[in-house]
């Protein structure tokens, strides 16, 4: 293996170590913000380390055809150590600010969508509902008024019809009883 490939491999492994450190900090920041049970945390820890090893191996395959030697592990450890020594606190600070910005952006977007879309739709829905209720009550009032006018106009005829019925069939007996009696009397006559 040439010196250039070895230097390229060492630089790639230093970068892998730094990326693993960044991934570790990112994972711990998000893990600290969530309330997960211990068994889920264990599974995520396992997935993180398996994913990190897979990333290192894939980069090794790309850089030097997957040749694994002791200096490679040493370069990964030095890259992670340099990251934790020089950039971990700045990266965590940056990550926390990005998370706060993302939360602010999410809340602002939800507020804007609520103000521009949801509230006007709810307003128009309520206006249409109130208009329909108003029209329904007006229609009921008109029907009630027409019914009262019709009853008032037809009331003399109704009283006359009731009076005529009482004269024809008697005051105490009903129509069907008189009809039945009349029908039986006709039968007897035949």
TrEMBL record:
Residue ranges crossing the lipid bilayer per the database entry: 6-27, 39-61, 67-84, 104-122, 128-147
InterPro entries in alphabetical order: YabQ
Keywords recorded for this protein, A-Z: Membrane, Transmembrane, Transmembrane helix
Keyword rRNA-binding among record annotations: no
Pfam families: Spore_YabQ
Domain of life: Bacteria
The protein, known as: Spore cortex biosynthesis protein YabQ
Gene name of the encoded protein: yabQ
């Amino acid at each position: 293996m040439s010196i250039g490939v070895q230097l390229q491999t060492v630089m790639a492994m230093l970068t892998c170590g730094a990326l693993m450190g960044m991934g570790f900090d990112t994972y711990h920041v998000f893990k600290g913000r969530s309330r997960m049970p211990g068994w889920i945390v264990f599974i995520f820890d396992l997935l993180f380390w398996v994913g990190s090893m897979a990333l290192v191996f894939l980069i090794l395959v790309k850089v030097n055809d997957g040749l694994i030697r002791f200096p490679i592990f040493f370069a990964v450890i030095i890259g992670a150590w340099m990251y934790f020594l020089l950039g971990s606190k700045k990266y965590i600070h940056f990550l926390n600010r990005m998370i706060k910005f993302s939360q602010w952006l999410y809340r602002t977007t939800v507020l804007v969508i609520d103000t521009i879309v949801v509230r006007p739709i709810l307003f128009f829905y309520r206006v249409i509902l109130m208009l329909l209720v108003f029209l329904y009550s007006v229609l009921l009032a008109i029907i009630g008024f027409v019914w009262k006018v019709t009853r008032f106009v037809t009331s003399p005829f109704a009283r006359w019809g009731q009076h005529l019925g009482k004269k024809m069939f008697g005051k105490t007996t009903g129509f069907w009883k008189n009809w039945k009696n009349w029908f039986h009397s006709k039968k007897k006559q035949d």
